[in-house]
Amino acid sequence: MPGSTFGTLFRVTNFGESHGPAIGCVIDGCPPGLALGVEDIQPELDRRRPGTSRHVTQRNEADQVEILSGVYEGLTTGTPICLLIRNTDQRSKDYGNILDTFRPGHADYTYWRKYGVRDPRGGGRSSARLTAPTVAAGAVARKWLRQQHGTTFSGWMSQLGEIAIPFEDAAQIPLNPFYAPNAGIVPQLEAYMDTLRKAGDSCGARIEVRAHGVPPGLGEPLYDRLDADIAFAMMGLNAVKGVEIGDGFGVVAQRGSHHGDEITPAGFASNHGGGVLGGISTGQDLVVRIAIKPTSSIRTPKASIDRAGAPTQVETFGRHDPCVGIRATPIAESLLALVLMDHALLHRAQCGDVQLATPAVPAQVPTQTPGAAGG
Amino acid sequence: MPGSTFGTLFRVTNFGESHGPAIGCVIDGCPPGLALGVEDIQPELDRRRPGTSRHVTQRNEADQVEILSGVYEGLTTGTPICLLIRNTDQRSKDYGNILDTFRPGHADYTYWRKYGVRDPRGGGRSSARLTAPTVAAGAVARKWLRQQHGTTFSGWMSQLGEIAIPFEDAAQIPLNPFYAPNAGIVPQLEAYMDTLRKAGDSCGARIEVRAHGVPPGLGEPLYDRLDADIAFAMMGLNAVKGVEIGDGFGVVAQRGSHHGDEITPAGFASNHGGGVLGGISTGQDLVVRIAIKPTSSIRTPKASIDRAGAPTQVETFGRHDPCVGIRATPIAESLLALVLMDHALLHRAQCGDVQLATPAVPAQVPTQTPGAAGG
Amino acid sequence: MPGSTFGTLFRVTNFGESHGPAIGCVIDGCPPGLALGVEDIQPELDRRRPGTSRHVTQRNEADQVEILSGVYEGLTTGTPICLLIRNTDQRSKDYGNILDTFRPGHADYTYWRKYGVRDPRGGGRSSARLTAPTVAAGAVARKWLRQQHGTTFSGWMSQLGEIAIPFEDAAQIPLNPFYAPNAGIVPQLEAYMDTLRKAGDSCGARIEVRAHGVPPGLGEPLYDRLDADIAFAMMGLNAVKGVEIGDGFGVVAQRGSHHGDEITPAGFASNHGGGVLGGISTGQDLVVRIAIKPTSSIRTPKASIDRAGAPTQVETFGRHDPCVGIRATPIAESLLALVLMDHALLHRAQCGDVQLATPAVPAQVPTQTPGAAGG
Amino acid sequence: MPGSTFGTLFRVTNFGESHGPAIGCVIDGCPPGLALGVEDIQPELDRRRPGTSRHVTQRNEADQVEILSGVYEGLTTGTPICLLIRNTDQRSKDYGNILDTFRPGHADYTYWRKYGVRDPRGGGRSSARLTAPTVAAGAVARKWLRQQHGTTFSGWMSQLGEIAIPFEDAAQIPLNPFYAPNAGIVPQLEAYMDTLRKAGDSCGARIEVRAHGVPPGLGEPLYDRLDADIAFAMMGLNAVKGVEIGDGFGVVAQRGSHHGDEITPAGFASNHGGGVLGGISTGQDLVVRIAIKPTSSIRTPKASIDRAGAPTQVETFGRHDPCVGIRATPIAESLLALVLMDHALLHRAQCGDVQLATPAVPAQVPTQTPGAAGG
């Protein structure tokens, strides 16, 4: 689907600008009969919400979601679900200095070249704030996938700037603001961020997300492969510049004798492929990694031009995330859920419910260490 | 578009199996009035054709394309263009041993889990042979983009297995079977491949592709961003496990003060972003890198199961590429062309011809060293 | 596009239920730079609004539209335009008696069979109230088409129940509640409706809509023809059971020597085809007629079953239109505008702006009497 | 889907020109495991084939279909099915006189205005010959629907020119060249056609098609209703100018007390609605009627212009159908099958297999006289 709609059958149409009256989305194609309330969606929104630690933007957006349609007496009716989030904390004056100039690394220049007109308030349409409706829709997909197929999702930060974060303990992920699966490294991460913030600079991050309990058979080759759609979803997230599935760029130096995951009667013996073969899910965990660039909105002055083409200097004083990657984990999980949801419906359309329900051979990797993906 | 159709407005529908009567595609939505003949398409097919050196599969497929529709007196009519390639060299007996077993790393298992029935001859639908129609369609897109916008494409191998290939001279690329931009390293690559082939093993590769002379303004955020569609296209190519745009995974350890490309009245001062900001083209070169896994069809025996779930050993004796990455360069270029073609039409639909035609400020990077993308 | 989205490039996603918190739509793909405000949309909503005469439902819905996104400083930005209409007059108790029974002629039964769950309040999703967002989106399309191509729309009632309404004077259409192009017949129509209302019954209607100043060349055969999309749009309007283009069912008894519209250097000599040949617009007026069935919500008792399958009687006491056709004219005009808008963008995508701008031969019928369509 | 692709999930992409090397289609999204061979498709093609009586064009097209992909050992594999029909009887010289002029009532003018270039041989892309791939694809849909849901199709001519054809006996339909359900009227039809042919003129026709055994619940409101898609399909067929569902234009003069089909524990008591309520199938027979205009290619001279805009006279001497409606019955049945097929998959995607399989209340009309649709 072109433009602001994500998905072919579970279609999420995103609308809104950072500092307009509201943002939100319409989900069309959701299966009927799913128990759904604000309490299913709000927790996911709260996970990505700004203002929760000193390491993210201090904007205080409540991000309170309202269900305007598609749910009756607590059940989805199969008709479009409109989710609305009113914008509350809009200090547009913070952005006054970017009206006529193009911030380096930002979408200011390209939106202007494409449309000839743009809403500059808070980045307008290109703001990371527009990931909130994606997360809200993802919460609906997650609930259906969990109930229908037992599919669950996890995600964590595996690198912050130059600091690699070894995977130690999944239970630590929700206990620190970085989604780090490693309690011991958190002080180092905090010190790193404090230094960065004082310097008026920003850094990148690497995030890993996984889906567990994925039905085998999802994916629509030749072109609309599961891995292709995952790459589409992830690269479409603000600031992402790289996507890996399974061993990712590690495969370049591998041999075929090492890479091809052997199959045993008890399941796959390894997961170099990351849960996809020929564009179709194997039933193993889906393993995805993304590279997030450093925030472009920094206090350090950079050269740019104004709309008349004259040279100028830009520095940004708004309340920005010094590392957008910090809040990216729940968003990336949501995107993965949206891709799987759409493919679950696509598969059911063509092949029916039967095959998903009756796996004839074991499809799960017997042991699966979350941090050992690159192995 | 789901399944075997690529693109929203320039739509390529791919059909065929490796060892069926024919493969091909239907291109719907091509602008009318484009001069088009077999001579525009065949050279691109010949670039990806097997059997051209000892380092690729020795299957001898002529890959002769026939235009069945959509062209009248040498001009496209705006109606669907059917391109047909008859299969000629089909030694199905080579594949007899894979009828009932699943080759590790192959799509055998997933196609069987998805559809319950599969054409095993030569990999059937999951064969890399099905990239030929993609390349044929890409040739049409390339011609239109070159004529309409002056857009051109280049690609090369930047790593083969463990061997990094420094970019030295673009003129060398077509002169060796590896698409290596470096004449001096070719003997080393040949020796590497000979060793690998004798060992019955395979290796991965990294390919870089670029588009030059890209109009600014292409891309349809929020979701259907140009970079998202590039990632979709590239990750959907057989054996690809990673995609990078611009500095790719290099951004993780970068600072914002370094990453954001400054803009001067003479153009962008660098290209860390790889030609996309906010999902929309900047007018700079598009810079894309992909990681290709080692071929799964190897002579080395590997553990697997048969359709009854019993353990077995699989070794593949067919005539396979020991490195599918060697033939990937022209395919990746074609995919990039298909993405740009579709986005050029999408942009024209919404915003008209005018903006593309009248760039108000310089959008080109003044100097652009192809090999220095990661800088 | 499936489900609740209308259009391929100018995409209108409709959401909401009759008695939920709100209804509305998201328009994605609107060209940027269009001057747009509530004042462009509200008048069209007011034309279809109930409560404006004693011949339509007495529900008093303000239908006040709010623009939530996609417009900045009075101009469309090219990003999704969310239009929201809060529901204000929801007397759900009026509908209590239909919770467990299926009203004959209504969508109650089919929604229940499809989704297993339904919102019964005021017809829920199947209410004619959901045409309001369509009309709102149509107003945007109308403005763009008028500015870009000079295209305008007209519509009127040509039959009410058994009473044919001869076309006399287009100026009369907005001056009576029936959209009748004939002042003299209005008293007869009013008496007819009064009798019907007292009898607790309802009647059908025939509506004619036209587009004037249509660019030639719109339509995407083979399947996505302009006339096919018009039929899709019109038959998709609540209560429509028949669609005609040009001479419609009159062609069955015609001869080819009569039907084929002759072309002269001054333009087409007649318009039996209704402005479409081979699925593509000729540049003549588009001529469309629709048949609207009598309202199913009537006070006359009818046999039905309840959800347990037991026989029951249904009579409906809510405030319903005794002839839904009376308010259909502005809706049908809006649907025609949405179809043309989408095809104008589709055509521009494939063929560019040039052809539309430079008609080489006259494409307009020199004289065009609105009421003489069947001629 | 835009252009030459029909359907959202069961997608038929049509290609070819009347006098090019071949015509055909690619079906993507077909469920796997369906037994399919040429013998399933060829009989339907033979039903629409020209040259079978003196009342249709005497072109002798064998219309022999070839399956190029998507079927392995007699079963569909779930991958694209390419169906190819080589053109054999192409007397292009017959069409020499239309190269530079526009035949009144034909698509010559509009294709030229849209694309600026056109293939004039035999009408090129706008030829009724291009319905052959539609019929071939329809045969696949029919087989699946019959096996999966017991759905069958019927169709007949109900009027030829001025002659109404009373429905008497369905068994007669395949026994005469007109698809007339009435043996007694055939001599009158033959005499009518002979007179018309001698006069060098043509006439229109009305065709009725029905689907029996339709699962309830098919249709995707708000916009993508089942009736809307039927109207799209039918109005998109060459020469169709009107579409009715159920009582069609008869509803205008009906009362609500008459129209709304009562429901009894034994099923619906009548079928004024034609099997659709609120855009969703009821489980009753689908009842559709179409109006087909008289063939535009006639020997009678008509005024037109040439490409330079100068006045000219056009008469057409090719071998044309004097009534295209005669061959339209199998095509209209095929289109209805394609619509139902796509909606069966769309419904299964969103709502699963369960509801279709377990109807809780009777959904079939107890008695159903095919000819009594307008009742």
Automatic annotation (TrEMBL), chains A, B, C, D:
Q: What class of enzyme is it?
A: lyase
Q: Name one GO cellular component term.
A: cytosol
Keywords for this protein: Amino-acid biosynthesis, Aromatic amino acid biosynthesis, FAD, Flavoprotein, FMN, Lyase, NADP
Q: What is the lineage of its organism?
A: Bacteria, Pseudomonadati, Pseudomonadota, Betaproteobacteria, Burkholderiales
Cofactor(s) annotated in UniProt: FMNH2
- Which Pfam families does this UniProt record tie to the protein? Chorismate_synt
Which protein, by its recorded name, is this?
Chorismate synthase
- Say if the entry is tagged with keyword Iron-sulfur: no
Which species is listed as the source?
Pseudaquabacterium pictum
Pathway note: Metabolic intermediate biosynthesis; chorismate biosynthesis; chorismate from D-erythrose 4-phosphate and phosphoenolpyruvate: step 7/7
- What NCBIfam families does the entry give? aroC, PRK05382.1
